[in-house]
Every structure is written in C-alpha cells, then in structure tokens.
From TrEMBL:
Highest taxon above the source species: Bacteria
Organism annotation: Mesorhizobium alhagi CCNWXJ12-2
Name of this protein: Uncharacterized protein
Amino acid sequence: MIKVEFKINRRTVRPSDIANQLERAMFEQVRDGIAQKLQNVRDPETDVEPTITMMGRSWITSRSRSRGRQPS
C-alpha cells in the first residue's frame, strides 16, 4: 500500500486533524508576520511595544485590536 503523509510546517498531521492544524499554521504565520512588521513600533513616551489581540471564533470572523502596554 502507498504511504501518504500530510505535513504542515514540517510537522506530520493526521488526516482527521488537518483542518485544525491548517488553521493553527495560518494563525502562527499571521502572528509572526504582524510581530515582524511591528517589531520597531514603540510608545514614544514609555518605549513599550504594543499588544495586538486577535479575537473571533474562526479565521473568517476574526478581528484585531491593538493597545499599548503599561511599563513594567
């Protein structure tokens, strides 16, 4: 029998779990892309980076909110 494997981001995925793994991979790539683009953004008064929050029940219905963080 021919062996068929599914891999997402170099991780083997079971066929029954492929939808969840694809969604996770998309969210991770979006998170990493946002972080890379905003890596130099800082509050001019506190020099603290912003917090980006993604909310929603699925990729299609998600929305984002950004806010500054209080200095530690």
